[in-house]
Amino acid sequence: MKDKWRRLLAEGQNSLDMFEHMSSMTLDSLLKCTFSCDSHCQGKPSEYISAILDLSKLLVQRQHYLPYHWDWLYWRSEQGRRFRKACDIVHEFTAKIVQERRSQLNQQGSAKNHTENLEYTGGYKKKDTDLIDLLLLSKDENGEGLTDEEIKAHADMFMFAGHDTTASALSWIFYNLAMHQDHQERCRAEIRSVLRDEHNISWEDLGQLPFTTMCIKESLRLHSPVLALTRYYSQNMKTAGDCIIPQGCLCLISIYGVHRNPQVWPDPEVYDPMRFDPENSHKRSSHAFIPFSAGPRNCIGQNFAMAEMRVVVAQTLSRFRILPGPRPVRRQYQLVLRAEGGLLLNLETLDESNKE
């Protein structure tokens, strides 16, 4: 992505749509980490990439058109047929990967021996172990593994839930840093003080970026990629005021509203990373900040996402200055939080001569 940005800037294209570039980058990263697949989707979109993007758009369009909530009508519509075709492409891609990897495991011998070959001392997997490997090697207490269908379902879920949300989060992070140059410069100074090698960042480096992490969290508060979540009541629940919510109900929780509660967040519309300074947050409820949901059914990929965001922000700010774009940005509420007409920001390359 950084190479593409340098090329576009050299050609005189200074305004870039963050959503366009972040979506292809996060999808590229997830394909690598999930399937060990070098998709090259940042240069030339594949059929698989196009299918995933199409499914996201079709899902939102179906939600917003009430007659399409009726399955009988939807699957007979042009959009329904497009949805089925895109699903087939995605499922065939995943099925092929799973079948090929299972075949490789069978050729290498038992799953147990393969696991031993993959492990470091202490039980940690080698860096080239991806999600498919972990799913194929997983066993329950009876020694039973997952079926191919279960593995495909897990992989597809990780792909769908993991790329668009992170792309949205990163786009809004760069927007907020563009609008607050003082915070951006402080992040850049912190990043440069930590990175021993500008071209690489280690796992240990991520833990030494407290202010950058605070900026990421404050952006997630103001512009959470997911705007709401639901919970099913498995039993009657008594609430304040002696109200009873009956078993079987669905509760919709507004993440947008929780993150803007003025009783918890003074001046909630103000971007202030210091809210997440340990001194300011230790008395705050753990459920006041829920960009990844909360409780036993929270986001399984939140640690992956936070690490990815730190890496991308660090690598980007060490090379580029992010500036406000040519037009005002307006929020657009879709499957994830987007911006009307894209989120355009201006970029400047930080060469050795102008690095501070």
Layout: helices, strands, pairs:
Layout: H1 2-10, E1 15-17, H2 18-35, H3 47-63, H4 71-74, H5 78-108, H6 111-118, H7 131-137, H8 148-179, H9 181-194, H10 203-206, H11 210-222, E2 228-232, E3 237-239, E4 243-245, E5 250-254, H12 255-258, H13 278-281, H14 302-317, E6 320-324, E7 331-333, E8 337-339, E9 344-349
Antiparallel strand pairs: 1-9, 2-5, 3-4, 6-9, 7-8
InterPro entries: Cyt_P450, Cyt_P450_CS, Cyt_P450_E_grp-IV, Cyt_P450_sf, Cytochrome_P450_Monoox
Family: Belongs to the cytochrome P450 family.
Function: Catalyzes the formation of aromatic C18 estrogens from C19 androgens.
Walk me through this protein's architecture.
There is one protein chain. This protein is mainly alpha-helical. The protein has one domain (2-354): Cytochrome P450 (Cytochrome p450, Orthogonal Bundle), CATH 1.10.630. It has 14 helices and nine strands. The strands form four sheets. The chain has a three-stranded antiparallel β-sheet with strand order 1-9-6. Strands 2-5 form a two-stranded antiparallel ribbon. The longest helix is centred in the middle third of the chain and has 32 residues, at 148-179. It is globular and about 50 Å long. The two termini are 23 Å apart. This is Cytochrome P450 4F6.
